[in-house]
Amino acid sequence: MKASQIAVALVHCPVLNRKGESSTTSITPMDVHDFARTCAFYGIEKVYLVHPAQGMQAMVHDLTAYWANGEGGVRNVGRKQVLESVCVVDSLEDAQKDADYQLWMTSAQVENGEMIEPSDLPERAGNHLIVFGTGWGLDVKKLPNANGWLSPIVGIGKVRHLSVRAALAIYLDRLGL
């Protein structure tokens, strides 16, 4: 039996813009599919997309419904199964209600608070939600308190951080599931 259950969340609001101000970003179809597919590859069964705008939520529902109930699911059963894990919520608090998750934030830089290696998370009892931000990162002042932070992914190249889809894959691989 697993010591823990792990889910992921991709937060589009509240996040920071390039000026460090609280902001909202758009959900992209590529993020929906890539997050769900990467999570399915690593056995993560729940993917939360956090966005308060009804229009963005409707776009995700239309996209996933095409694969879950429409012609897309008939032609590609694998994609149907992958996208069944997607759940759109207004806020991170709404996601927490599903399984009383402990929140583990991610960032491209070292943050204040408890920091753990991703490989240590599966050994901790309870339900865990790994939280990713869009834009220029999570606006933690407007989010529920985190249990801690997963150590950042440190590169050696010319850019400051990875795309959120690439970071997700690396973090999940480092979980060692």
Structural class: alpha/beta
Distance between the termini: 13 Å
Q: What is the number of independent domains? A: 1
Q: Helical region count?
A: 6
CATH fold field value: Alpha/beta knot
* CATH level 1 name: Alpha Beta
* Beta strand count: 9
* Percent in helix: 25-40%
Radius of gyration: 16 Å
Approximate strand percentage: 15-25%
Helices and strands, in order, run as EEEHEHHHEHEEEEH
CATH architecture designation: 3-Layer(aba) Sandwich
Can you describe this structure?
By secondary structure, the protein is an alpha/beta fold. The protein has a single domain, classed as 3-Layer(aba) Sandwich (Alpha/beta knot), CATH 3.40.1280.10. Helix content is 34%, strand content 21%. The chain has helices spanning 29-41, 54-68, 71-75, 77-83, 92-99, 164-175, and strands at 4-11, 15-16, 22-23, 47-50, 86-89, 102-105, 115-116, 126-133, 148-150. The chain has a 7-stranded parallel sheet with strand order 5-4-1-8-6-9-7, sandwiched between helices. The protein has a two-stranded antiparallel sheet with strand order 2-3. A hairpin with a 5-residue loop joins strand 2 (15-16) and strand 3 (22-23). Helix 1 (29-41) packs parallel to helix 6 (164-175). The longest helix is centred in the middle third of the chain and has 15 residues, at 54-68. The protein is globular. The model has no long low-confidence stretch (mean pLDDT 91).
Task: Give the topology.
Elements: E1 4-11, E2 15-16, E3 22-23, H1 29-41, E4 47-50, H2 54-68, H3 71-75, H4 77-83, E5 86-89, H5 92-99, E6 102-105, E7 115-116, E8 126-133, E9 148-150, H6 164-175
Parallel strand pairs: 1-4, 1-8, 4-5, 6-8, 6-9, 7-9
Antiparallel strand pairs: 2-3
Helix pairs in contact: 1-6
